[in-house]
């Protein structure tokens, strides 16, 4: 059975773009790095950015900082005070048709390369080659054996970012 739209490739392009754009804000912000196995970052993928921003502003109290992306769209960093807490990635562009509205989570891991080898041996699929985002970390995008997408990141330390 063929899929009408290969969202795997779109997701990996989208997530790499989002991380590259977010790197500038995250690298310049003091925030606690999650320990191995803990969630590090979460990103909402949605075509209805303004609706999502209003919802989270009204219910959680987030504020938002715009970050222009290379393709002319805007990535939104959600904040509590000065601390970045999540991102909103707009999918209201032709390249992202068929990408469902969802949250993408990233787990902090001690060594992405080693952990990915274990994951693949355990039935996970690497959606694209592992990649580095300057001043952010080394990132893998996987689907776990049940099919859920998950990002893994070995974050750079503040000493490495300097």
Structural category is alpha+beta
Give the overall shape.
globular
First-to-last CA distance: 49 Å
CATH topology: 2,3-Dihydroxybiphenyl 1,2-Dioxygenase, domain 1
Helix content: 25-40%
CATH class: Alpha Beta
Q: In what range is the share of β-strand residues?
A: 25-35%
Compute the CA-based radius of gyration: 16 Å
Mean pLDDT rating? 83
Order of helices and strands: HEHEEEEHEEEEH
Q: How many DSSP-defined strands?
A: 9
CATH level-4 homologous superfamily: 2,3-Dihydroxybiphenyl 1,2-Dioxygenase, domain 1
Number of helices: 4
Number of folding domains?
Answer: 1
Largest sheet geometry: 9 strands, mixed
Q: State the CATH architecture.
A: Roll
The stretches of 5 or more residues where confidence is low (pLDDT under 50) are 1-7, 27-31
Salient structural properties:
4 helices, 9-stranded mixed β-sheet, disordered N terminus, 162 residues, 34% strand
Topology:
Elements: H1 7-27, E1 39-46, H2 49-59, E2 63-68, E3 74-80, E4 83-90, E5 102-108, H3 112-121, E6 125-126, E7 131-133, E8 137-143, E9 149-155, H4 158-161
Can you walk through the features of this model?
The chain is α+β, with helices and mostly antiparallel strands and 162 residues long. It has one domain (7-156): Roll (2,3-Dihydroxybiphenyl 1,2-Dioxygenase, domain 1). It is built from 4 helices and 9 strands, in the order H-E-H-E-E-E-E-H-E-E-E-E-H. Strands 1, 2, 3, 4, 5, 6, 7, 8 and 9 form a 9-stranded mixed beta sheet that branches. It is globular.
Short description:
The chain is an alpha+beta fold.
């Amino acid at each position: 059975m063929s899929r009408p739209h290969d969202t795997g490739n779109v997701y990996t392009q989208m997530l790499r773009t989002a991380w590259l754009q977010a790197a500038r804000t995250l690298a310049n912000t003091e925030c606690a790095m999650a320990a191995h196995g803990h969630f590090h970052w979460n990103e909402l993928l949605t075509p209805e950015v303004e609706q999502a921003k209003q919802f989270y502003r009204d219910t959680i109290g987030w504020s938002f900082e715009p970050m222009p992306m290379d393709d002319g769209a805007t990535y939104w960093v959600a904040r509590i005070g000065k601390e970045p807490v999540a991102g909103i990635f707009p999918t209201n562009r032709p390249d992202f048709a068929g990408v469902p509205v969802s949250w993408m989570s990233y787990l902090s891991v001690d060594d992405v390369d080693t952990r990915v080898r274990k994951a693949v041996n355990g039935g996970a699929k690497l959606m694209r080659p592992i990649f580095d985002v300057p001043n952010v970390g080394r990132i893998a995008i996987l689907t776990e054996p049940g099919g859920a997408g998950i990002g893994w990141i070995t974050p750079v330390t503040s000493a490495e970012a300097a």
